[in-house]
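Is this the right way to post structure tokens for a design question? Let me know if I should format differently. Anyway, here goes:
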């Protein structure tokens, strides 16, 4: 029988509707789930009851869990007639059923039973799924269906339920879905209800001649740039057929593969498992065996064992089909020696006899083969091998040694771990909120002085301090709210230190307290967390012991804190403009995905050499793609300026306003012992909302990087991208929802807080990923996350200024056109505008319909010029093609600066000049607003008198004069002929400019 149970903790309710006729309620909660009902105790005369009761439901059919619903009804018990009155209900679907470790207390607003119900208040519940066999189900209510009392049949727990309790991460390895059966597709830790079938791309069968690649515009309105810097649409032949204009044109032999976004590559796989009874080379019986697999000039080696006759390797070698230079495969066992390795034995295979394996077939079973010598005579010893032909869809592909990655002359066994493709998951980040309230009974060394105390809080390398407070009674109060970033699993502790400022740069520690983060309460909303007193200890070791140590002493100082893990926020760990995930930290608040994003990394062309090897320039490149919590890294292709990757990855999409980032890097760990940083070659960003559903985008993106010498194109990256929508209604509904979780609006963070916390989050993610094997290095994470986007740059400032001008260029064009109408530059146009103006004034009800109809027609007209391709980096918009060498040197300078004093002085003077112009513009805008305030503030009594009298006269005139007449007079006056105009400003403008601003009060 299955041990799966649904646990529900009924915490409490607040602000309930009074129903007992005396302004109160006798509230209790009744829970319904899977034909079972449980009930809490009755809290009499309480509109804010607290129960803190736990119930456990048996799940009779785990395979049907995703279709079950938990209902919580709140009732008022009427003692007079022993009846109950409805106070509200909460209905939770399967998306709220999470493991206990991820469960949080959420306060749900009570819903009405029908439109006549009167309901208010909230109910606090904690809902989770557990498979702990020691937990027994609760006793149900007497009135139950007889079907529930029977023993539930033993059910097989589905994958999504078992994955809830797995300590390992969900299957994240990129599964090349070139599989004919659904049972072997990529596993995901979501209920089957959330896995909707992929859309059927039923394109018509048609044949077309291959089309040449064409240069496309990035998006409408983008300024032109060099043709070499624009993206090119291509028509490659991929696994599903040829891609033409985003459509898949299938050939005569329709492939059964769904692995259709990359080119299908054939490989010869050799799995070396183990050996036995190997002959020893001397009387001591010592043997240092290893295996060499070779075909033509390509060869790979396993690791060697010292003095072992029965070694186990279990290593896989993959030889690309184009690298098969011979029809014979040789697997040679050798003995490692100082000078020349000795031959132990050989196993040969004819490639024509090697079987072909097509997933989802099970892996080929390895066999024992007798070793033979050079003459073909059998020798002592056997080698267990498996040899087969397959594609990159094979399960052994990610962990294999690749001939197309290393090359025929390369032999770098120490670098094998650094060239394999890997999938990484960034840690789940939490905001740690610490509210420092007060301290009591502080003990300082000098009791004759009033302590100037503050609190220093540290998590890892994050340190924040409260403001200093002087308290005569040794009981200071701070009430400071501090935020930190922490990552699961919580390895660091929260260290609280109370210090006393004795003098300048001289502090004395008063006491310490240590709080393990895994003991801190989690919350997903803005409910109030209970404060708690923590004892202050003199030493760190005593503080680590916590309350056990404080019980030894009858008296000790203590500090009052309110600490919680805020799961209602989204922890920003990348630039806000390029966020790839906007979900809150708490998994209970996650919604179902709206689509699937598929990325095929095909190849790179024309890369610039990043290093020199054997007297020629070369590169060892790999690609990194980031979306959400999932990072992927392709295998490293060594010694190639035109590498072919052909790897495919998949992500779930929860919000269309997110960005996929793909970067290309040169692996500096290959053949280098000094730990050089990986070199960035370029980056591509794809915003999901710019992709049409179901279309396959096959473009070659230029890899543009800004160097101290200017912008450079270091090659091109060829990608295939498809966004498939699983729920069109949910995706359209997303456009009506806030961009960030609700907590960002209920308790918003300041801009300074966000930037500071983002910097800490990027450091945590970079540290965690750099500890993986192989490590995803810090410089890669920072480049992909745009960690330095907040630093000052003259180039970015100019670019943003011209972007602002481009935004207002439409309004400026309208103003210029209207000025030409008023100046009668084109009399026919002016007369038509007069006629339209008279019609709108005479029929004012047509104004808004005309405006909206005009915008509708503009939208239809612009549909012809809609962008058909995703946007890419634009050097003109970035102002990278007109930047000076000195501005580039300033942008690449470190922070703080390392440049000479005279150069820094020159740049500082230039910055002051630019900032002076900006402050002048800001001051002018502020002055106009202050003049508007001065109209009625009597700062200029005469001007205010004139304006007040004008308002009175205008009110009388507007009262007796129809609005249409006034509008006609005003409109004809504005559009009057130039012969009736004066060159001096008009009277209202003169009056407004004479009004006082607050510039007189500026120092």
């Amino acid at each position: 029988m299955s041990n799966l149970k649904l646990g529900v903790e009924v915490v409490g309710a607040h602000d309930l509707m009074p129903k007992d006729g005396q302004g109160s309620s006798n509230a209790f909660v009744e829970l319904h789930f899977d034909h079972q009902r449980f009930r809490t105790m009755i809290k009499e005369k309480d509109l804010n009851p607290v129960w803190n009761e736990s119930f456990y439901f048996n799940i009779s059919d785990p395979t049907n869990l995703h279709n079950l619903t938990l209902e919580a009804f709140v009732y008022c018990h009427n003692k007079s007639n022993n009846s109950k009155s409805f106070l509200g209900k909460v209905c939770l679907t399967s998306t709220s059923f999470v493991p206990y470790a991820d469960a949080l207390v959420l306060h749900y607003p009570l819903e009405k039973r029908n439109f006549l119900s009167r309901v208010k208040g909230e109910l606090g519940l904690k809902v989770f799924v557990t498979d702990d066999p020691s937990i027994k189900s609760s006793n149900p209510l007497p009135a139950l269906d007889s079907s529930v009392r029977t023993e539930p049949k033993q059910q097989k727990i589905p994958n999504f339920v078992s994955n809830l309790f797995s300590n390992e991460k969900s299957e994240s390895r990129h599964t090349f879905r070139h599989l004919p059966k659904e049972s072997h597709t990529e596993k995901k830790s979501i209920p089957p209800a959330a896995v909707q079938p992929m859309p059927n791309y039923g394109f018509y069968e048609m044949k077309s001649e291959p089309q040449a690649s064409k240069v496309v515009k990035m998006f409408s309105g983008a300024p032109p740039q060099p043709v070499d810097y624009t993206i090119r649409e291509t028509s490659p032949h991929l696994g599903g057929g040829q891609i033409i204009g985003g459509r898949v044109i299938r050939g005569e032999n329709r492939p059964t593969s769904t692995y259709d976004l990359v080119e299908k590559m054939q490989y010869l796989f050799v799995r070396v498992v183990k050996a036995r009874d190997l002959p020893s080379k001397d009387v001591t019986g010592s043997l240092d065996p290893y295996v060499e697999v070779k075909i033509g000039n390509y060869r790979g080696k396993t690791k060697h064992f010292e003095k072992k006759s029965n070694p186990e390797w279990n290593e896989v070698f993959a030889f690309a089909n184009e690298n098969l230079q011979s029809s014979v495969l040789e697997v040679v066992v050798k003995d490692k020696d100082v000078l020349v390795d000795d031959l132990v034995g050989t196993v040969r295979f004819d490639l024509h006899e090697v079987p072909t394996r097509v997933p989802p077939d099970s892996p080929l079973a390895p066999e024992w083969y007798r070793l033979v010598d050079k003459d073909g005579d059998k020798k002592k010893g056997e080698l267990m091998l498996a040899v087969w032909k397959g594609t990159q869809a094979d399960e052994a592909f990610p962990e294999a040694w690749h001939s197309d990655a290393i090359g025929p002359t390369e032999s770098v066994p120490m670098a094998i771990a650094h060239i394999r493709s890997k999938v990484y998951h960034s840690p789940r980040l939490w905001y740690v909120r610490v509210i420092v309230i007060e301290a009591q009974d502080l003990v300082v060394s000098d009791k004759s002085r009033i302590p100037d105390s503050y609190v220093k809080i540290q998590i890892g390398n994050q340190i924040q301090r409260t403001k200093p407070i002087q308290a005569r009674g040794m009981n200071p109060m701070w009430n400071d709210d501090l935020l930190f970033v922490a990552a699961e699993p919580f390895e660091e502790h929260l260290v609280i230190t109370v210090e006393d400022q004795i003098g300048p740069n001289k502090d004395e520690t008063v006491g310490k307290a240590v709080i393990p983060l895994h003991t801190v309460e989690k919350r997903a909303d803005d409910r109030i967390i209970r404060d708690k007193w923590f004892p202050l200890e003199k030493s760190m070791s005593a503080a680590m012991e916590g309350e056990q140590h404080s019980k030894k002493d009858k008296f000790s100082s203590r500090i009052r804190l309110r600490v919680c893990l805020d799961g209602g926020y989204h922890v920003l760990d990348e630039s806000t403009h390029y966020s790839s995930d906007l979900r809150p930290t708490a998994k209970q608040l996650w919604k179902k995905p709206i689509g699937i994003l598929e990325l095929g990394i095909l190849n790179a062309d024309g890369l610039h050499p990043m290093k020199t090897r054997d007297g020629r320039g070369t590169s060892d490149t790999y690609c990194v793609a980031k979306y959400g919590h999932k990072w992927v890294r392709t295998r490293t292709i060594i010694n190639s300026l035109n590498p072919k990757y052909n790897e495919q990855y998949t992500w779930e999409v929860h919000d269309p306003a997110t960005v996929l980032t793909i970067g290309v890097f040169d692996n500096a760990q290959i053949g280098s012992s000094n730990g050089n940083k990986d070199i960035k070659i370029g980056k591509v960003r794809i915003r999901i909302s710019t992709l049409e559903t179901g279309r396959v985008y096959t473009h070659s993106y230029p890899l543009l990087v800004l160097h101290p010498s200017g912008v450079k194109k270091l090659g091109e990256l060829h990608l295939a991208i498809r966004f498939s929508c699983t729920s069109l209604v949910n995706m359209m509904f997303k456009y009506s929802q806030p961009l960030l979780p609700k907590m960002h609006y209920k308790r918003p963070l300041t801009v300074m807080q966000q930037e500071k916390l983002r910097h800490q989050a990027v450091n945590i993610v970079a540290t965690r990923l750099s500890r993986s094997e192989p490590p995803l290095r810090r410089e890669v994470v920072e480049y992909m996350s745009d960690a330095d986007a907040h630093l000052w740059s003259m180039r970015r400032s100019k670019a943003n200024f011209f972007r602002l001008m481009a935004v207002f260029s439409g309004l400026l064009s309208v103003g210029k056109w209207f000025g030409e109408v008023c100046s009668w530059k084109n009399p026919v146009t002016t007369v038509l505008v007069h006629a339209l103006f008279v019609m709108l004034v005479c029929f004012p009800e047509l104004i808004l319909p005309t405006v909206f109809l005009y915008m509708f027609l503009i939208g239809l007209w612009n549909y012809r010029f809609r962008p058909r391709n995703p946007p890419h980096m634009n050097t003109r918009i970035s102002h990278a093609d007109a930047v000076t060498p000195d501005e580039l040197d300033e942008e690449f300078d470190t922070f703080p600066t390392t440049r000479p004093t005279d150069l820094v002085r020159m740049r500082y003077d230039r910055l002051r000049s630019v900032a002076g112009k900006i402050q002048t513009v800001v001051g002018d805008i502020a002055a106009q607003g202050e003049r508007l305030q001065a109209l009625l503030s009597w700062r200029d009594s005469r001007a205010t008198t004139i304006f007040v009298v004008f308002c009175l006269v205008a009110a009388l005139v507007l009262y007796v004069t129809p609005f249409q007449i006034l509008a006609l007079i005003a409109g004809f006056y504005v559009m009057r002929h130039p012969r009736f105009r004066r060159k001096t400003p008009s009277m209202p403008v003169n009056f407004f400019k004479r009004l006082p601003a607050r510039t007189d009060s500026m120092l």
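Format looks fine. Someone answered above. Worth noting: The first strand starts at residue 5 and ends at 14. Residues 609 and 615 are 12 Å apart (CA to CA).
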